[in-house]
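Q: Can I see a sequence and its folded structure?
A: Here is a first one.
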Amino acid sequence: MGRRMARRRKQAPDGRLPGHQVTDGEDEAADGPLRRCVATGERLNKAGLIRLVVAPDWNLVADLEEKLPGRGVWITADRAQIGKAVERKLFARALKSAIKVEPELADRIEAGLVERCIALLGLARRAGAAVAGFEKVGEATRTGRLLLRLEAADAGETARGKAAGARKAGFETADVLTADEMGRAFDRPRTVHAAFLRGAGGAGESLAERMVREMGRLAGFRVR
């Protein structure tokens, strides 16, 4: 995992520029499958991409789990690239069919990615692989259990200072979710500090890796 993840970033979690492919061809690289971005034309690691497919009603929908049937197109997980593709009708051109693209497509993708992040954090909490609160996060840091530190994107200056200290010390941090969003994962109104932990039968490591990808994709839809 990278050292820090900004709310709006141009690189995928693996350090590559996010991208994907116009068709679902299985090109492979040493660090994962590649897809071509319909907006940029670059063939990139799919970790930073969004797959979209045509629904039965001809609406273009995001396949965030990458499991829906049919031919798909891929696009960089970035609000600006979505807007570019819609404006230039790149989705229809790539799919070679008349499709419907809702004006709220980018907003719907962002909302879906938020829900995926909250679900992963909640799953980690229930597995004993995530904690909330500055004291618990600090304890995890001192005991060597810290995997990924989360700070609320709308946190105050004091909290941001603590996060900066953690980054300076070399810990992986992310400030993509808001305090309200993180709070939902812990069944409380707001959560400013949270962390994924090592252990829990390997659940912490697995869930943290998945969280890094989802937050990396979400970051491209959030304007600082």
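Q: Show me another, different protein.
A: A second, unrelated one:
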Amino acid sequence: MRWCVQDRHDSDEALVVMAQAGDAAAEERLLNRYKSAVRARARKFFLAGGETDDLVQEGMIGLFAAVHAFRADGGKSFKNFAYLCVSRRIYSALRTAERQVESGGVDPESIPGANTPEGLLLEEEALAELRRRLMRVLTDLEFRVFSLWLDGASYADISRATGKPMKSIDNALARSRKKLQTALPEERNKENA
């Protein structure tokens, strides 16, 4: 399956602008538009100790980050940027799984084009922008919990890393998600003002 999407009533870039301005319906349309492409991308890999759905979830996190970090003035299409963010997120999950499982697995470093200078730069810029926005709207605990969760840590792992009970971790993630749904579009509006 090619990295393509259906439902072309609005361009990807137009939906991104609307999503970054706080239009939850536009964000949902964009995420749904790319969901099958993310699934197709995730199915190409094997996650030692995991399932394809785990990689799909990682890919969707990458897609969400792409929606909020995309800059049209960079000269790249959203489709290419989203593909890069989704792929990077999946590769990151694979690397994490490899470190946790001693028996090899897929080596994302051996995938052609995975480490191009342009790809690495775009990923670093997108992640830096997302991290900056997260730090503006989340408390220190929420930021740490959300960051660990994005990196693929389980609730138990996050609980051990923060010294907080799992219920607190669940609550921090719920608060983070709620804040991010409203705050990221507001941050984007401030920057454009």
